[in-house]
Amino acid sequence: MEHHHPKRVVVCGGGVIGVCTAYFLAKKGAAVTLIEKSSVACAASGKAGGFLALDWCDGGALSSLARASFNLHRSLAEELNGLESYGYRPLTTLSLTITETKTPSPSAYKTDGLPSWVDGPVETPKTIGTAQTTAQVHPQLFTKTLLSKAVEEYNVEVVIGTVERVGVEGGRVDSVVLQGGRVIDSDAVVLALGPWSGKFEMLASMFRVYGVKVHSIVLEPKEPDAISPHALFFSYYTAQGGKPLDPEVYPRPTGEVYLCGMSSEEEVPDDPEQVVGNPESIEVLKRVARTVSSHLGGEAQVKAEQACFLPSTDDGVPVIGEIPGVKGCYVATGHTCWGILNGPATGASMAELVVDGCATIVDLTRFSPARFVGRRRC
Ligand SMILES: Cc1cc2nc3c(=O)[nH]c(=O)nc-3n(C[C@H](O)[C@H](O)[C@H](O)COP(=O)(O)OP(=O)(O)OC[C@H]3O[C@@H](n4cnc5c(N)ncnc54)[C@H](O)[C@@H]3O)c2cc1C
């Protein structure tokens, strides 16, 4: 069907995936409405670490998506003054082992290139990413900055409301229906509902998306200038023994230090605002912080204690593409622990798919929801 007006696209979900999709669609000339149930970046997209890696997904399904995204993050940061507006910066990344029962041995630090603020009982520091291959953003600021640009420059309209269902007529999308009855006419719809995809009947009847809950804290050290830009990935042995924990630590240019870890598979609550951290998991993260560095102990102020859900699929691969049998209805979800990294290439290739009919930035075949056809859930 020929369109004589700009293609009207409704993007459902105001996380990083929905916002990146809305931005690139609007940049390509579509008339975009973004619908968010609660507030923009209220869930994982506002509470993630924001770590980016060029080549950590090499050899797997995500390789080309991740590489394209890493490069798009760099060019977006140039366009949007990323360091100032959302804390984009390249950094060095280390893997380390830490054992609570050991005492720090200061001589090990200087020789092994360990940052001086990491003064806990750490061992075996190894560089696993350089400023050429790893970087970071503040995920909430990134998502909000990109949306502001999309609103101001490309006229994206933002509606706060809950999408109840997609209107379909003759096998083709024609609208989105919100709770309360409002109907928004559309030529295409993109469902970017993160872990809430599993609660949306149209998607849930086709494939499973479930949530893995992960905890995080944000600290404000007393001397932020002492903290260098190093991302840290730990194997952390507690005094109680057992399997090591795997917390991650990301200092931010804002002067804050973000720590995450402690995951469990839990039911995703309907309301994103109801997602709160389990107190025991938060306590463990605080203990990790104190053990890693004296700068992250008693004198550091705790600015946030929180949790959020990784949107996860049964095969561990995101679902990006047109829904079989419903022309004009697209889905983008299941980005697990790499949604902040993979937001830009997901959004840019989805915009191509919706507007041009095929994606060139990344081959989306591997991500198509068509892979679930014939394996329908009962
Ligand atoms: C602790 C933690 C750390 C992480 N660290 C990193 C990292 O360092 N690097 C990285 O690349 N990734 C990281 N991730 C992963 C990343 O955060 C996610 O993959 C990404 O945020 C998912 O984005 P999304 O837009 O799909 O989902 P979400 O951010 O969950 O957004 C979905 C949105 O849809 C809205 N919504 C739901 N239902 C409806 C409805 N019916 N109508 C309207 N709106 C609706 C919700 O309110 C929500 O705002 C981390 C995740 C966690 C949990």
From TrEMBL:
Q: Which residues form the FAD dependent oxidoreductase domain?
A: 8-353
Tell me the superkingdom of the source.
Eukaryota
Q: Which Pfam families match?
A: DAO
Task: Name the keywords, alphabetized.
Answer: Oxidoreductase
Write down any Gene Ontology CC term.
cytoplasm
Annotated protein name in UniProt: DAO domain-containing protein
InterPro entries annotated for this entry?
A: FAD-dep_OxRdtase, FAD/NAD-bd_sf
The answer on whether this UniProt entry bears the keyword Transcription reads no
Q: Does the keyword Oxidoreductase apply?
A: yes
Q: Which organism is it from?
A: Cephalotus follicularis
Per UniProt, what is one GO molecular function of this protein? Answer: oxidoreductase activity
The record's section on SUPFAM superfamilies has: FAD/NAD(P)-binding domain (SSF51905)
